[in-house]
Design goal:
With 295 residues, this protein is α/β, with parallel strands linked by helices. Helix content is 43%, strand content 21%. Helix 1 (2-15) packs across helix 11.
């Protein structure tokens, strides 16, 4: 029964490329390439498990009621909404490159009864703000997917005020999600964690420190913290099914592979990787937070 259900799902995903076009054709080919996976699936159902990380980020930055805060690659609004609710910051803005994400972010803000957040469609590599505008710049598993890491971090620092804080969460390269990035790369010929522009590179403290230091904008007090998300899961295969029905990157990988035999090999690799991280029906997701102050 399960095999039949999975085969039908994979056949549907492999044949359905209708969602592969990013809504706004004005973006460059490079930007389109990295935004496409996040236009697929149902990210909001994934993002709900990441909410504690947003709270961790916000607490770490000691945001005050007078601060102007930017949430970069805000997705469905987790961190922007959390910042406003937890701190009463004077001004909170959330930007994302995908219009559908911003629609969901507005809906989530409305449910939370937080209606004074500004939502903008924008690219982290070309932020539409003047220099030194924000007291706090945050990103929760967002900026790490920009194709040009040094451009992204330079832009984030450019719009941060001197004395302002920049903080972001990423997935450590050596742990579960970092390993899953490598598996997807193996089957889709995309960048592995060893490539300089892989998202996994943002999970290596030495790489992060180098990117922050080797920049035209200077920072001090670089600080790292680790945390864990405990995600309820019935089995490794349940996690796989969630990823191929809700997770944009895995859906995009299946559409790219478009070969049932290779997709089954991908599934086996994913299950083998996930299994050691499941204990007592809990999937352990380790994350890394980086914080620095702009000089």
């Amino acid at each position: 029964m399960f095999i039949n259900i999975q085969e039908k799902l994979i056949e549907t995903l492999s044949n359905d490329n209708s969602n592969n076009d990013v809504t706004k054709a004005t973006y460059s080919t490079t930007v389109t390439k990295y935004s496409t996976p996040w236009s697929l699936g149902s990210y909001n159902e994934i993002a709900v498990h990441l909410l504690p990380v947003s709270a961790h980020l916000v607490r770490l930055c000691y945001i005050s009621s007078t601060d102007h805060v930017l949430d970069v690659a805000c997705g469905t609004g987790n961190t922007a909404i959390t910042a406003k609710r937890m701190t009463g910051a004077k001004k909170v803005t959330g930007i994302d490159i995908i219009p559908e994400m911003l629609v969901q972010a507005r809906e989530q803000a409305s449910i939370a009864e937080v209606n004074n957040i500004e939502w903008k469609e924008a690219d982290v590599e070309n932020l539409p703000f003047e220099d030194e505008k924000f007291d706090v710049v945050l990103s929760s598993f967002g900026h790490m997917f920009a194709p040009h890491p040094q451009v992204a971090i330079k832009e984030m620092l450019r719009i941060t005020k001197p004395g302002g804080r920049i903080a972001f969460s990423t997935w450590p390269a050596e742990l579960l999600n970092g390993k899953l990035f490598d598996i997807i790369a193996k089957y889709t010929a995309s960048s592995s964690s060893f490539s300089s522009n892989s998202p996994s590179q943002w999970g290596i403290p030495q790489v992060i420190e180098k990117r922050l230091v080797e920049n035209s904008f200077k920072v001090r007090d670089i600080h790292f913290e680790r945390g864990v998300i405990n995600k309820p899961v019935q089995s490794p295969n349940h996690s796989w099914m969630t990823s191929i029905t809700k997770g944009g990157p895995m859906i995009h990988a299946i559409q790219t592979i478009n070969d049932p035999k290779k997709i089954e090999e991908l599934r086996q690799d994913v299950l083998k990787t996930i299994t050691p991280y499941i204990n007592d029906n809990v999937l352990r997701l380790d994350y890394l937070i980086t914080k620095a102050t702009k000089i």
